[in-house]
Design brief:
Radius of gyration: 32 Å
CATH superfamily of the largest domain: Ribonuclease H-like superfamily/Ribonuclease H
Shape: elongated
CATH architecture of the largest domain: 2-Layer Sandwich
Largest sheet: 5 strands, mixed
Order of helices and strands: HHHHHHEEEHEHEHHH
Strand content: 5-15%
Structural class: alpha/beta
Strand order of the largest sheet: 3-2-1-4-5
Oligomer: single chain
């Protein structure tokens, strides 16, 4: 285009009709008139292309925000763009960036690595419509004490609100200890309509030999009208929410803080972490609302199954 200008303008100045010059160079007559006017104002220098990029950008993020994004990523290497954007907005930072903007900042500064495409099997996602409809329960190990013992913990998550309803460390993961912890959780949060657990001996006597027998956990469920559901053997994705929470717990707490001085110290550390997790962790499916906010909203407007039994239990583990 620049070369066309330099050749077309002299032809016009030499007397060639503007219409013919425009046709010869494949441009409009208005373009030729514009080139001629620019030449008259500044000579051949006036024909040079001028950048249309604005000298200032009102939407450009301040350098302080860019630096904050990079610093948060370096300090918390496992935080992604969504988490960083959430934390900046939660802190009340003026002009908090969006998730996409945070990702661009991280990419420009070499703080993200492109992931290899993984072809994973797709699983059907499901979620109960109301809180207290279903609790997912599980036993997780890997909680080490200073004396060398490994403890297990009963964990439970509300399928709808993702509220952690129980996270109790057990000295011995017996059937009675699990049932006792389950009862204590119900006295705090209420009685769910259903529970979903794996086929561990603490949760079911279905596979007891020589004949099936009801275990204490099943008795507590039966006496309180709770539907006890079991996962299929070797199907960890059925309780995917609680399994994913276990990975987060291990990554953010257990991998760095153990072994604990005592069972009580382990319980205190886990309880504190759970409180912070529920209060601060954004939920993707709830537009960034924390688990505590989500649970409170849902319970406040829902007459969930089991509400009429909230104040007491029909049976116990004692």
């Amino acid at each position: 285009m620049v070369e066309q200008k330099y050749r077309a303008v002299p032809e016009v100045l030499d007397g060639s009709p503007i219409t013919e010059v425009a046709q010869r160079y494949g441009v409009s007559r208005q373009s030729v008139y514009t080139w001629k006017a620019k030449y008259g104002a500044g000579g051949f220098e006036g024909l040079r292309e001028v950048s249309r990029r604005p000298r200032t950008s009102p939407t450009r993020l301040p350098a302080e925000v860019v630096a904050l994004v990079c610093e948060m990523r370096r300090s918390h290497s496992r935080w992604g763009a969504r988490r960083i954007a959430y934390e900046i907005e939660r802190a009340g930072t003026e002009r908090a960036p969006s998730r996409a903007t945070v990702h661009r900042i991280l990419s420009r500064n070499g703080l993200v690595r492109p992931q290899e495409q993984q072809h994973r099997r797709r699983y059907k996602r499901w979620q109960r419509e109301t809180p207290m409809h279903l609790w997912q329960l599980d036993l997780v190990g890997g909680i080490y004490l200073a004396d060398g013992r490994e403890c297990k913990m009963l964990t439970g998550i509300d399928d709808h609100s993702r509220l952690i309803v129980v996270a109790e460390v057990l000295a011995v993961p017996s059937g009675r200890a699990v049932a006792d912890a389950f009862v204590r959780a119900m006295r705090i949060h209420g009685v769910p309509a259903e529970v979903l657990a794996d086929n561990g001996k603490q949760f079911t006597g279905r596979y007891t030999r020589p004949r099936p027998a009801e275990v204490l956990f099943e008795r507590v469920c039966r006496e309180n009208g709770i539907g006890a559901k079991l996962t299929k053997p070797y199907s960890p994705t059925t309780t995917g929410e609680i399994e994913r929470w276990h990975r987060t717990l291990r990554r953010e707490l257990l991998d760095d803080c153990g072994p604990f001085a005592s069972l009580e110290a382990a319980q205190a550390a886990i309880s504190e972490w759970v409180h912070l997790f529920l209060a601060r962790r954004p939920r993707r499916s709830r537009r960034g609302a924390s688990h505590l906010v989500t649970a409170t909203r849902s319970v406040a407007v829902s007459c969930f199954p089991g509400a009429e039994r909230r104040c007491g239990l029909a049976g116990g583990a004692g």
